[in-house]
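Lab channel / #folding
Pinned by the channel admin:
"Please post every new chain as: sequence first, then the structure tokens as a reply. Keep commentary short and put observations after the output so the thread stays searchable."

First post following the new format, from NK:
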Amino acid sequence: MTQNTASTSDHIQRVAIFTGSSMGANASFREGASAMASHLAASKIGVVYGGGHVGLMGVVADAALAAGGEVFGVIPDPLVSGEVAHTGLTSLEIVSDIHARKKRMAELSDAFIAFPGGVGTLEELFEAWAWQQMGIHQKPVALYDIDGYWQPLLRALDDMASHGFISKFTRSALIVHDDPQELLAAVRTWTPTVR
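Reply from TO:
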């Protein structure tokens, strides 16, 4: 990830989306992902994502493109066939590995939003959030809480905070919303908190 020294986040041009290469068990995940991607496109905000055409990744890309948005994919070469690289994007970059993918997505993005997903989504989310905590970047990090998907994780994070492993400063920096408009508004108005 690259350092962003901007003091505010009101000029969001592109958002990195972390989400699953699976659809998930509930139709609400697909509907929510499509709604958020469409809202980003309508708001003239580009989508940066993992470059696949499958699962919620594909839903996000297709919905943003259908709404007239720009979509930038970044996919590791070993996953081009496994995740079925999306060939209809504004831009598709093929990189060497997962680490290069995350670095490039961070370079292209002004904010990070985690949609429902699995282990890979969690790994991307926690790296972006940890790097924010360490001051490596000053970009907003958010959870899109479709159908309460992130509530168990949020309870675990609150428990970690109560045990003294996550500071109030760090916990309060994580944006959480279940509504696309409210989430984007919070991302746009987020400012880094001075420790």
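NK: The first helix runs from residue 27 to 42.
TO: also worth noting, Helices lie at 27-42, 55-66, 98-108, 119-133, 151-162, 168-173, 180-189.
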